[in-house]
Amino acid sequence: MHRSYPNFSFTVESECQEGTKARTGTVSTPHGLVQTPAFIFCATKAAIKGLSAETMKECGSQIILSNTYHLLVQPGGEMIEKMGGLQKATRWEGPMLTDSGGYQIFSMGHGSVGNEIKGRRGAEGGAEFAPSLVSISEKGARFKSYYDCSIKSLTPERSIEIQRQLGADLVVVLDECTPFHVDKDYTKSSMHRTHRWAMRSLREFIDGDDGTQALYGIIQGGVYPDLRNEAVEFVNKAPFFGIAVGGSLGADKATMHQVVSHTMANVRRDRPVHLLGIGGIADIFHGVRQGVDTFDCVHPTRLGRHGGALVKASFWTREQELEEERANQDAAAEAAAAATAEEEASIGGDTMAAGVGASKRKKRRRSGDVRKKRHPVVPREHVNLLKGRYREDHRVIDEDCGCPTCRGGYTRAYINHLGRAGELLGGMLVSQHNVFFMNELMTSIRTAIAEGRLAEEEDKWLAPGLRARDFHKRAAAEAAAAEAVKAAAGEESGESHH
Amino acid sequence: MHRSYPNFSFTVESECQEGTKARTGTVSTPHGLVQTPAFIFCATKAAIKGLSAETMKECGSQIILSNTYHLLVQPGGEMIEKMGGLQKATRWEGPMLTDSGGYQIFSMGHGSVGNEIKGRRGAEGGAEFAPSLVSISEKGARFKSYYDCSIKSLTPERSIEIQRQLGADLVVVLDECTPFHVDKDYTKSSMHRTHRWAMRSLREFIDGDDGTQALYGIIQGGVYPDLRNEAVEFVNKAPFFGIAVGGSLGADKATMHQVVSHTMANVRRDRPVHLLGIGGIADIFHGVRQGVDTFDCVHPTRLGRHGGALVKASFWTREQELEEERANQDAAAEAAAAATAEEEASIGGDTMAAGVGASKRKKRRRSGDVRKKRHPVVPREHVNLLKGRYREDHRVIDEDCGCPTCRGGYTRAYINHLGRAGELLGGMLVSQHNVFFMNELMTSIRTAIAEGRLAEEEDKWLAPGLRARDFHKRAAAEAAAAEAVKAAAGEESGESHH
């Protein structure tokens, strides 16, 4: 089976000079170009939550995606087709991707386990809906609609048909996404079925191809290196336009990075590669180094809706400086108060007066004259603007940021108020900051790759301790240490299987 | 007591040539000009729900208001002052008004009765919170905060102090707003206390006046003509910059129009007059004719959030034309089906075939080949885009509308989907349509007043049957008829008190 995608292309423009597989390129689609590495924002139900297409463009976005599962449940592919397709309906009019619907039906159907997929945890991974899988067979999957409780079925052919109705530029084969807790046997047989489904998806795609869409295959195989190798070989051979890395990437960040590195090792280099559902800054730097071209995740907009603003390394430097300044002020105030107390004591000439001075000092501290001890500043990839410490912070999120929120002069204190008051505008302001941030991040990564200074660039985006390459080094050192311990233990016990 | 407001002015520019008291003018404030008649949008908690300051400006808004009650509860006047005041915090930077906090504490505190105030009913009037009044005394009011359940007090002095911290251009005296179901005695004594509070508000205002704010008095008096007269006399005499018409305007639209007409009859003509909490299109036309200069209401944005789009008379003309067209199509399809059945019957030469034809026709009708009978089109001031009839309506709300939503090409079908999917964007798109609509309405009213064709202009905005002047005429005719009946009854029974 052969396939050409005449209205699509992927060209690699520059490759990293620092010994990684990072590269810049261009994915060309009928709805426009995507400069890679790129981030794809999630317009799950044909809308970015709380942001219009105009705002997305204003924030420099190149490409968005919608989810087949959600749209087949409501309003249905046929209805979107009648609207003229996703690009027209949403007024985005730019490049778009749709997934196959498999991810939601299978992985999210596993309930709480769905949160563990790809290392997501807690609130960030909280599913907004609970699709329920009824059955999986060779034919496809049956599930219960969360919208009207009707039983629906999704086969590889039907997924492609719906994605054709939706009309995105980049479409994806139906696959089963297994959570990390399933055993290797299940993962293996599921992967083989996924490969059969992929070929059926491809045939259905080719049958109806009118040149407006390009198909991505998906690499499954869970956390098992040999299965991943087999899946890579499969997608490398089949005539897909692009390749997506999917499935369980393990229960923690270390495993995720390992699985991505291992998987990317043998993926062919002439096709665009998409890493499904990953959106952390360090994870993106890690993925880019392994040769990943595009990423998607609800993270930036979901985080933003809840008051979490993505920030650069410089944010934490400033916070720490301010913290130090405050500590110095506190110490000075404390010293002044102590001096006053002593003075009062010497004037009064008795210990009672010193007592009064001390009580005044206590009172002053209670009333907030001397600043309260704050929680220490611990750098993360984002900052929660709804925290009490930002209630009287009259700075914008980042004075160097060019996003509509920061440039517009909306302060942390105002955003904090909006969050506390339950005003949607708060979430909208932080979401658009995050979207702009992600686009700026990807632009900077592209420039850095072209200019051979990706490691230097990472230092601007991630505070020490958060960097992917440090994490990687640390993991490698730990692994080496463990190996050494094991080797030493082996030597000691004299047990050698060689 | 005298007072000048050197940094504020109100100038009347043109008066209606059609025998009404409608007028155009300009309110000048330190944050800019407001061309009147104008609509004031509600940024209740220092944010228009779901719309940024930029969007409000883009939609042609001149002035917004915030509610003292909500802001004193959270984050507090002091906190807004630290943010640099409402204009700076919200990034609106234009003219603003704040109310005194009285309306929410008193009227909304009456629970379900709050919905009846000013003729609001059902979902539109659903309170988003439940403030609970603890006590009213001559000093002021005590109430329980809905935010943290703490007991707070609001006196005339405190209201002015908080409004100074908030920093809006136009501020308002503290008043008690009584619901329509309280008796005349209570309304009267409450009004007198409100007048004493108004004088205390004025004194407090003058004491701290730095020229950045101007004070509005409020006319109370419920639905009682003599009390309204007394209240009008009070505000006419006291040195307020502007005059607000507040309090209960009755339980229905007819009473509301009557109370407004009666109240406006003697209000002095050299001050801007604001009608509190009124935002229906017909009510605005009615108010404008009585000499009202500004209006405010949550209606346009609340309606929009729930999928209700404000529409002009032409919208219904088009809907009715389309309905007729569909009915014709249905009739034609029905005739064609009947012809086919007859033909089949004549070919078959027996009655069985005719039966088949009829059953096919039935089947065709069931399957939707012949369009289903739709609910008749009944004009209102707005249309609910979440209704099933708009699910496949691929037109924008109004093709002649220049708002970001209509101009941007967002269709009724897409908005319908967004509403059903629970996507915020749907409410945002309709809200911005409604804001633009209200501003366009007020601009058209100003032009029409200046050009002496207000009645003609009303026909563009309100479909027949919805017009305020028809309503007014109808009410007058009904009253005359009732009078005639009464007179006739009097004659018949021979009972005459003359």
UniProtKB/TrEMBL annotation, chains A, B:
Substrate binds at D99, S100, G101, G102, Y103, D175, Q220, G247. Residues 329-340 have a biased composition (Low complexity). This is Queuine tRNA-ribosyltransferase catalytic subunit 1. The active site is at D99 (proton acceptor), D296 (nucleophile). The keyword Cytoplasm applies. Its main location: cytoplasm. Residues 277-283, 301-305 are annotated as: RNA binding. One of its GO terms (cellular component) is cytoplasm. It is found in: Cytoplasm.
